[in-house]
Amino acid sequence: MNIDNIRKIELEITSNCNAACPGCARTQNIDLFNVESFYLDDIKRLFPTERYIANKQFKFCGVLGDPALNKDGVLMTEYLTESGGYCQWSTNGAYQTADWWTKLGQISKDTQLVDVNFCVDGHKETNHIYRVGTKWNVLERNMQAYSNAGGKATWIFIVFDHNEHELDAAREHAKRLGFEFATRTGMRNSYHDWVALIGKKNQQEKKVITTTGKKEHSKKAQVQKLDKIIKENKVDDKIIQTVKCKLVHEGEIFISAKQELWPCCFLWDSAFKNKENILDKLSEYQTGWNSLKANSIEEVLIHPWFDKVLGQSWDPAHNKHLTRCIRTCAYNKAYQNEITVE
Q: What pTM does this model have?
């Protein structure tokens, strides 16, 4: 595996965020992390030539932060598109100035290599209930500025009980902006009810956020069955053969705000929380083994864990087995988000 095999790179360019979404790992583990970011010089070091960039998709997203809180985000996008990289942003949209969004929209229009997923779960009345901390007037201004500049975008709307009545308003707003419109369903939202704290500081009210009926993930029953199999330690070769790994099968990598290279956002999430004692299981490797501050991308990709052990560890008998790989990627990624473009 080397950079030529990699087709998609997810970049968590910051762990900072202006929102406090109740289902987010950041909100639920606020005491576990420090805000970290990397900038344009880091991107140039990690992706120094066209070989590292051209015809690859760069997804500005992450587990802990919103990419729009990184001041160099537009400059990074400009650098990558100049060498033929395709840049997709995933953001709540409620940060930065109108001029900043205008510049990103201009790059999108001029290069046709940029699109933005505005993750807006509601409209004026309800978006702040899940996207806690975002301000509608800022979000609306920024989407309009990006649209006015000719930027390509999709409005992605997670449907909950509390915001379903605003679907039509959001659809019409997206149409006026010239954006596509899509609905999203996440497995975690179908498993959990979230509690958001909304309102002014010291006067916050609790709001229970639910997803029911047709708004639930269509494969929830399948994942529940998989959970039972994992719990009973009955994962067999037939299930292992259904694993679709982002790295192994799709040529994707994830770079965290700490500049650590992981096969996917799921295992970075596990490392952040040390779920399944992942850090202990990988502790035999020298400190910084997957750090891109100390190594190049290609040096990490040929590390034994990436090269062989990851695939071998899908077997429950392996000493580095992580059930996260089975749960999120078995049954042909049944667990992962469903996005329906209308």
A: 0.96
